[in-house]
Design a protein that fits this description.
This protein is α+β, with helices and mostly antiparallel strands. It is built from four helices and eleven strands, in the order H-H-E-E-E-E-H-E-E-E-E-E-E-E-H.
Length: about 270
């Protein structure tokens, strides 16, 4: 026989059920509100950065808590392709922005990393963590890493044929007959070209790299230099110093002005 529920008990049951559902809805609303609050600073920063990279200065400044707060200057003219906004787990009001330059050969290059604090939907603090407009800082870090790992002193240029607007480099470890190599690439926007330098230990005499139409030149200190005059892809020289091979090349494609081997020699002479 089924259990009989009295009318009063049924009413109490319905009240409890309604109260329980109300409690669930209230809790869901609270959690949704907290998620929205956590999301809000990120949205503020996303809108702000969009205005910054589009050079919409007045709109960007409208997001600042205090108009006296300085927006870091973007010193490089290379366009920014994308950015990510990351919320700091410990502080929901603190966002970290990582922006990347657009269309860089050899992979993505970081344009800047900023730490931004948002209070009451306004930006109250901006700190520059990394400035990608100083590419030679990246070069210095990579060269130092190579030197410490392989205990060799590497020479790098101190003079260039044009302003360096980008840098991309990497190291490769020894692999079979291939030696450990330091690869340095310098973008030169005004020349529509790049300077590529490969550094690796001497395992063969320099004459091994003499090809047809190779010209033999020298630096001021008497260092022997090989110039590959008819290299289709670029202007290229090689020399050896202190147990290391150096190969310097400037790409010919789209080169915007006259370039000669003397320009490469000037770069080599400046290497310290």
């Amino acid at each position: 026989m089924g259990k009989i529920i009295s009318k009063g008990a049924g009413v109490d049951f319905m009240k409890k059920r309604v109260n329980f559902l109300f409690l669930l809805l209230t809790l869901s609303s609270l959690f949704a509100s907290k998620d929205a609050q956590a999301e809000q600073p990120k949205k503020v920063v996303e809108h702000f950065i969009n205005h910054v990279i589009k050079n919409e200065h007045d709109l960007a400044r409208s997001y600042l808590f205090d108009t006296r707060l300085a927006i870091p200057e973007l010193k490089e003219t290379t366009a920014i392709g994308k950015f990510n906004v990351l919320t700091t787990p410990q502080k929901k009001d603190t966002q970290v922005v990582v922006a990347y330059f657009k269309g860089e050969p050899g992979g993505e290059r970081v344009a800047f990393i900023w730490e931004i604090i948002v209070r009451d939907e306004k930006i109250s603090y901006i700190q520059v963590i990394h400035d990608g407009a100083k590419p030679l800082l990246e070069e210095a870090k990579l060269v130092k890493e190579y030197q410490l790992k392989y205990h060799r002193r590497v020479l790098v240029p101190t003079e260039f044929p044009a302003e360096i607007t980008g840098f991309h480099g990497y190291m490769t470890e020894k692999n079979g007959t291939l030696p450990e190599t330091l690869d340095l690439g310098y973008g030169m926007e005004s020349l529509h070209s790049y300077l590529h330098i490969a550094v690796f230990p001497v395992t063969e005499h320099l004459d091994r790299f003499i090809w047809k139409n190779t010209e033999i030149l020298q630096l001021k200190d008497g260092t022997k230099v090989l110039y590959h005059a008819n290299f289709d892809l670029g202007y290229e020289i090689r020399f050896q110093k202190d147990g290391l091979n150096y190969k310097l090349a400037v790409g010919k494609k789209n080169l915007s002005k006259k370039f000669t081997v003397d320009d490469l020699l000037k770069i080599a002479e400046s290497m310290k």
